[in-house]
Each structure stands twice: as structure tokens, then as C-alpha cells.
């Protein structure tokens, strides 16, 4: 009687462990799919792949501009913000080009090097833009990214999804997939030895 209870408990434990392993594998596959349709396209689309050094030539705060693509919009959160334009000397080619914060900044507003977040108010934006401009004037030389193919003549300060960031994004689903497969293999090995011992 006790033996039957132990066998039943063992089968239940194996079933739960097997379900856990299969669930981890399924979740990791969903994470792979999500990363593949969100982060990977942005990474492959970016042409600013080569790092070089940039030297600041001028950093000017121009007249205020409206929120990008906000003409004719009735959104109450839209506000004008100072347009910071940073021009740098590209060490790789010696050209005078405009610097943008990320790839997304160029798409949102090609006239400005920095586009504030929508949640910020006008006073915070003005203070932040002034701090960024003073930092560029203080630190004249810094690493930046440019397009070695020449399709984009401008440069960016940082990539949205650098290679390290992409590897880090794939790290967690890989660990989950490995753990799920390991649980499944251990359950199968346990079942095999249980059947073998029962047969003997």
C-alpha cells in the first residue's frame, strides 16, 4: 500500500516537473518570437554600425519647435521645446556633420540633435537641453557612431540596440530554454531508471 502511494506521488511529481519544463520551453520560444519581431528589425535596420571619435564644433540652442509631427494635432500634451543642434567633426572622414542622440531622434525630428520625452514639461526640457549643451561644450571629444556605407551623412551618440544589448536580450530566453530542456531530460532519465528498476 505504501509502495503504491510512493509510486503515485512520484508520478505526480514527474508530471508537474515535465509540465514546468515544457512551460519554460514554450515561454522562451514566445520570448524569442517577441524579440525577433521587435528588437532585431531595429538592430538590422540601423546603418550606424562603426564607432569613431567625434569632436564638437558647435552646440547651439535654436528657436523653440513644436513636438515632432504635431502640426494640426489637438493633443494637450504638445508643447514647444528648445531645439539643440550639435555639429561635430567626424574623425573617420574629417567631415562636418550633425549629431543625433539615437536613431530614433533622427526619425522624430531631423532638425534637432535631442528630442525630449513627452512626459516632461517645458521647464524641465529647457533645463535639460541647457545641461546637455553645456556638457557637449565641456567634453569636446567623445565616441560616436557613423554609417560606413555613406547612406547617412550624420552621426549618432549612442545606438538604441547595440550588439551587447541584443545579446543581453537573448540571454534570458536562452537560460529559460536551457533550464526547461534540462528539467525535461532529467524527468525522462528518472522515468527510464524507474521502469528499469521495476522490470528488474
From TrEMBL:
One of its GO terms (molecular function) is potassium channel regulator activity. The gene is Kcnmb1. It is found in: Membrane. Pfam families: CaKB. This is KCMB1 protein. Keywords: Glycoprotein, Ion channel, Ion transport, Membrane, Transmembrane, Transmembrane helix, Transport. Belongs to the KCNMB (TC 8.A.14.1) family. KCNMB1 subfamily. GO terms for biological process: detection of calcium ion. The chain crosses the membrane at residues 20-43, 166-187. Its main location: membrane. It comes from Stercorarius parasiticus (Parasitic jaeger). Coiled coil: none annotated. One of its GO terms (cellular component) is voltage-gated potassium channel complex. It is a multi-pass membrane protein. It comes from the Eukaryota. PANTHER family: CALCIUM-ACTIVATED POTASSIUM CHANNEL SUBUNIT BETA, CALCIUM-ACTIVATED POTASSIUM CHANNEL SUBUNIT BETA-1.
Amino acid at each position: 500500500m505504501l509502495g503504491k502511494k510512493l509510486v503515485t506521488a512520484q508520478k505526480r511529481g514527474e508530471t508537474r516537473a515535465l509540465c514546468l519544463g515544457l512551460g519554460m520551453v514554450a515561454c522562451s520560444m514566445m520570448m524569442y518570437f517577441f524579440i525577433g519581431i521587435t528588437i532585431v528589425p531595429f538592430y538590422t535596420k540601423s546603418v550606424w554600425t562603426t564607432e569613431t571619435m567625434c569632436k564638437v564644433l558647435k552646440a547651439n540652442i535654436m528657436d523653440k519647435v513644436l513636438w515632432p509631427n504635431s502640426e494640426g494635432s489637438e493633443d494637450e500634451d504638445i508643447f514647444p521645446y528648445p531645439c539643440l543642434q550639435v555639429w561635430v567633426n567626424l574623425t573617420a572622414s574629417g567631415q562636418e556633420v550633425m549629431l543625433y542622440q539615437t536613431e530614433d531622434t533622427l526619425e522624430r525630428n531631423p532638425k534637432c540633435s535631442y528630442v525630449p520625452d513627452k512626459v516632461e514639461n517645458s521647464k524641465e526640457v529647457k533645463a535639460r537641453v541647457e545641461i546637455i549643451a553645456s556638457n557637449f561644450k565641456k567634453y569636446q571629444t567623445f565616441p560616436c557612431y557613423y554609417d560606413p556605407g555613406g547612406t547617412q551623412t550624420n552621426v549618432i551618440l549612442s545606438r538604441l540596440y547595440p550588439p551587447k544589448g541584443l545579446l543581453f536580450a537573448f540571454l534570458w530566453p536562452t537560460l529559460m530554454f536551457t533550464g526547461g530542456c534540462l528539467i525535461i531530460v532529467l524527468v525522462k532519465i528518472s522515468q527510464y531508471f524507474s521502469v528499469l528498476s521495476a522490470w528488474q
